[in-house]
Design brief:
Radius of gyration: 42 Å
Distance between the termini: 138 Å
Shape: rod-shaped
Largest sheet: none
Helix content: over 70%
Number of strands: 0
Structural class: mainly alpha
Order of helices and strands: HHHHHHH
Number of helices: 7
Oligomer: single chain
C-alpha cells in the first residue's frame, strides 16, 4: 500500500512539473510575440512621422508655388513672343506621347490660309462678273464663316481627331458656300 501511495504521489508530482514547463514555454512565446508587436508598432509610428513630414513639405511647396504665381501674375503681362517661347518651353518638357496631342499652331494657321485661298479662287472662277466691292464683302463673309466653323469644329473634336482631320470635309464646305447669302 505504501508503494501505491508513493507511486501515485510521484506520478502526480511529475504531472505538476510537466504542466509548469509548458506554462513557462507559453510565457516565453508570449513575451517574444509582445516584443515583435512592439517593434512593428515602433516602425509604424516612424512611417507615420515620415508621411506627416512629406505632407508638410508638399503643402509648403504648393504654398510657395501659389505665392510665386500670384507674384508673377501681378507683374506686367509678357509680350506675345515671350509667352509663345514659354509655351514652347513647357510643351518641350512634356513626355512625347502628351506632346503629340498638342496641336501645332503654325501648321493649323497655314492650312487655314491655304484653304481660304482655295475658296477665294473657286468663288472668283464661279462669279467673274461680280462688282469689286461685292467680291471683297463676299470674301470677308467666307472668311468669317470659315473661322467660325473652324472654331466650333476645333472645340467639338478631340486633339487626336483634330490631328487626323484638321479641315472640314469638302461636302460641308461647298454646302456652306451655296447657303451663304450674297448681298
Amino acid at each position: 500500500m505504501k508503494k501505491t501511495l508513493l507511486l501515485s504521489t510521484v506520478v502526480s508530482f511529475a504531472m505538476i512539473c510537466s504542466c509548469q514547463k509548458n506554462d513557462s514555454g507559453a510565457e516565453a512565446q508570449l513575451a517574444q510575440r509582445k516584443t515583435e508587436l512592439d517593434a512593428r508598432e515602433e516602425a509604424l509610428i516612424q512611417r507615420e512621422k515620415a508621411v506627416d513630414a512629406r505632407e508638410k513639405e508638399i503643402a509648403e511647396r504648393e504654398k510657395a508655388l501659389a505665392n510665386s504665381r500670384i507674384i508673377q501674375s501681378q507683374r506686367q503681362a509678357p509680350d506675345a513672343a515671350q509667352a509663345e517661347a514659354e509655351r514652347q518651353k513647357r510643351i518641350q518638357q512634356l513626355p512625347p506621347e502628351l506632346r503629340a496631342l498638342v496641336p501645332n499652331r503654325s501648321r493649323i494657321e497655314s492650312e487655314q490660309t491655304q484653304k481660304d485661298a482655295e475658296k477665294q479662287e473657286q468663288s472668283a472662277q464661279r462669279q467673274p462678273a461680280v462688282n469689286p466691292s461685292q467680291s471683297i464683302q463676299n470674301a470677308r463673309q467666307r472668311k468669317l464663316d470659315a473661322m467660325q466653323k473652324w472654331q466650333t469644329s476645333g472645340a467639338a473634336l478631340s486633339p487626336g481627331a483634330q490631328r487626323s482631320s484638321p479641315t472640314a470635309s469638302p461636302a460641308i464646305e461647298t454646302q456652306s458656300e451655296t447657303e451663304s447669302p450674297t448681298p
